[in-house]
Amino acid sequence: MSNIDQQEDDEISLIELATILGEEKKILFGLPITAGIVAIVVSLLMTPIYTATTTLLPPQSSQGGAAALLGQLGGLGGLAGLDIGGGAGSPEMYVTMLQSRSAKDKIIERFNLMERYEAEFKADVYKQLDTVVAITTDKKSGLITVAVDDEEPQFAADIANAYYEVLKELLTRVAVTEAQQKRVFFEEQFTKAKDELADAEVALKEVQERTGLIQLEGQATATFEAIAQLRAEVTRREAQLAALRSFATPSNPEYRRVSSELASLQAQLSETEKTTGVNSEDLTAFSTGKLPEQGLEFVRAFRDVKYNEAIFEIMAKQFELAKIEEAKDTSNLQQLDLAATPDRKSKPKRALIVILSVVAAGFVAMVIALFRGATRRSNNDPDQQNKLHSLRTAWRIRKAE
What we know:
Bacterial polysaccharide co-polymerase-like; single chain; four-stranded antiparallel beta sheet; mainly alpha; rod-shaped
């Protein structure tokens, strides 16, 4: 076949196609118009949905603020063996907290969602919240966005803002739980040290009244104070390790640091006792020689008072530090954008619904028009009838024999 004949056949095919579409113009134009009208009516009948959005800034690292606070406390900062700086978690962690069952339960209880959604079980409300609440995070900035859909714009804004309060409550509860553990531990140690110091002072007074000794010479006093301070530091490190065991493992860097300091202090205490000839547990002699029995009794009582004074001072400062940690707000959660009442609906998008409906109906109308035109022409053309029969046969589902 020549190029001219091929071109004529192509022209004839295009003409036939245009003719078929012209013959079926009622369907070709009527169906999309009808679909558009139906889409307009349906979209107008759909309930408007409003979206309220709030933006949250997750807690940032507060180690710098804690260091400044310790600096203002002077000597207390050097005695702080526990890291009180609250490290910031990842934004994904806070998103998970907002999507947790605890957060949903607070929202459900605050807004009585069981009744609003007419749900019999909480699980149904959980699913509904997952549908109407979108919680996302920006990986670059770390900001968290909470978007809430509802028929009532004010209600949507109220729920969005409530998520900020809920997250703040969760963060405060988690932080205070750990802070309370430290505070209770050091409070017990402080009370114990105070009682032991009082007992030691009473014992020293009784010894003084019985022996008539009032004080030791300067060398002995300095020796006892040095050993008492070292023993107090050893006891403090042991208390810190006991507190760390409640929420940290031996592989924790802070745990390893305190363990190392404890070993170093124990070695220093042993060396001091060896050098001075004074045993901190069973004092019997000085470098100047052995003391009389009454003097030895007074020395032991005096030693106990100095030791307990050092322990009491350290535990008092640790206790005050733990109370400060418990009292301060460790959440540092900020709400950058308050969820305002939306003025315009976010759903349904009527224009998009109508356009998609018209386009889809137009495609269906074209297929119907071409099929009807081909069927009509095949009735007058034997070749077309054979082709149509072959097509039907090829697509027919044969019954199993």
